[in-house]
Amino acid sequence: MAVPVSQMWAVASYVIKQRVLRRKHYATVLMLEPLLRCNLACAGCGKIQYPAHILKKEMAVADALAAVDECGAPIVSIPGGEPMMYTHIGELVRELVKRKKYIYLCTNALLLKQRLEEGVFEPSKFLTFSVHMDGDRDAHDFAVCREGTYDKAYEAIKLAVSLGHRVTTNTTLFNHADVGRTRAFFDEMMALGVEAMTVSPGYSYQKAPDQHGFLSRENTYKLFRGLLQNPKKHWEFNQSPLFMQFLMGKLHLECTPWGNPCYTLFGWQRPCYLLQEGYAPSFAELVRTTNWENYGRASGNPKCQNCMVHCGYEPTAVHETFNSLRGFIKTVQATFAGVPDSEAGPNITPPAVTRFASTGEGHATEAELDRDLREAVDYRGDVIVTTRDGRTHEGYLFNVTADLVEYFPSKEAGVAALKRAEIVSVQRTGRDFADGKGWEAWVKKYNDAKAARAAGEKVEAIGIYSEPL
Ligand code: SF4
Ligand code: SF4
Predict the structure, then answer these.
(1) Distance CA 49, CA 33 (A)
(2) Does the CB atom of residue 78 touch ligand 1 within 6 A?
(3) Could you report the per-residue pLDDT of 404-414, keeping only the tens digit for each?
């Protein structure tokens, strides 16, 4: 089973319409994050490291729908956090189906069976479960830091397929991915009955616990050439053929950061799903006030040099396909011709990714205070802001503009704002939730369990979280 023609037509007609209207900044996929809480803590995840009061928050359905309506994208992807933990997931999906949006509900599937048995979802051509599967059993359980998750997701996929739901897999690959095992994993997923697979290299999130597993551009080319060379006939990918060629280094694409915008608990994330450089109150404002020339590989921004993630490049590939007859023919050729072995990809040596230097303590000048406030947006813990009247304000700071600083107070509901001109200092407080401590603990647990099993001991399934699956 492949992507339905009605979905392809919805996307094609939408893109052609934007072209006729001469719109440059349009979105094809809206990434809607209704919560940041998850029941896993994966090594490569840069999304869940927040203080508890942020993880408890959920987006109002009305806010989510207003974002969907404003953005207009024909596809809505719902990641998180884990959307199956979102209290209003059934209502949100029903409302999106009414709007004829094609929904990709991205889930680790630990709660999928339960939600299906509860009757939360009706099968629909508009709804697809995009199940997080990072490779075969060992690879997946290691990547998500919990044994038993592969089996649980496998069973849930089987049930969802048998109930008539559309199911795809969503695989993020890191530098320890093995070509042979991953190809065998593709076979296994297709045999399970999934409609198609999405495969992407992991983005080198500065907040992810495992900082050593990310792929450089060269290693991405190498890995994807190995994976996709002579693809098997029964493999279906839920990705544009041009994007696949880009992953193999056969085609150069530039990033389109506004093409898959992210609406999250803090607003419209600037500039893209991966980087967090503040939030805009509306999609129109995001488009109007973001300095797009500062992003993408061509900008020289070090955070973009190794990025080959679908949210930045898939919209470029889709735009290329429908923007000219040449692009369309290129896509058709890529679809039917496969990948020529002899064609060499560009030889790019990306510069090292820079890390934030500021400690957030001490700012003798206004410029330093400005810098520390902006870096506090990227810090995954609460901060204390002191104002000229001597008062202190504690919370999770998520936006800094020339006039205002916005934050979620640690001990009160809602959003608070301070005038930028009133602020005299900002200090980091407590733990940075992206400090990687959980990852170190997991690797130790994993290695200990492996050694014990090798010595013949019986060791129960292990994970960062200790409660049973
Ligand atoms: S990557 Fe893992 S931890 Fe992050 S949201 Fe997905 S399942 Fe949860
Ligand atoms: S290259 Fe990647 S990180 Fe940079 S703006 Fe594009 S999607 Fe975001």
Answers:
(1) 14
(2) no
(3) 999 999 888 88
